[in-house]
Amino acid sequence: MKYYIIFGPPGAGKGTQAAPLAERYNLKHISTGELLRNEIAEGTELGKKAKALIDSGSLVPDDVVEGMIAQAFGKYKDVDGFLLDGFPRTISQAMDLDEMLEARDEEVSGVISLMIPDEVVKERIAHRALLEGRADDARDEVVNNRILTYHRQTEPLIDYYKDRQKYHEVDSLGTIAQVGENIRNLMDSLA
Length: 191
Ligand code: ADP
Prior knowledge:
Helices cover 61% and strands 14% of the residues. By secondary structure, the chain is α/β, with parallel strands linked by helices.
């Protein structure tokens, strides 16, 4: 099985790019943000706990997302692998993922990193707020906190994966189609 991670700041286009990539490479796309939003929409206990954290721009606890990831790994057998979107988001999540995969004699296949400057993050999220109506996109204060959370807790993963020779950055400032092509070129070179 392949285990790709699509990585980048909020609003970098991970979800947009992940869907067609998953289809092309027969991977199951797992977005932790989307799974959490489904839990909120369904009003589950997990969703209730996650909502306040997400709405303030903080991360939910590691064990919550790791439980969702473990469940997805167990559930989808009929694919060539997984495309993880929004996970891992902390060093401890990355270490736990390595352990989870090691237990199955597997490893992370590669990290595809979409990098955009903070100013572009803000523009894209402001645009998405008008289209999708996500509560965590609507307020500047929350968006700023998500960017801060990204720099503090998620950005250290770049060095984590560089140290393991798994980190690959693609130019993400072009159109959706151009960025998609950059990612496909990278993935074809990794396969
Ligand atoms: P974006 O990439 O635009 O920040 P996501 O849909 O990936 O949005 O995530 C939305 C929110 O869900 C995050 O701000 C965070 O609160 C929560 N979340 C998603 N994935 C994780 C994770 N791996 N660990 C902790 N919290 C997460």
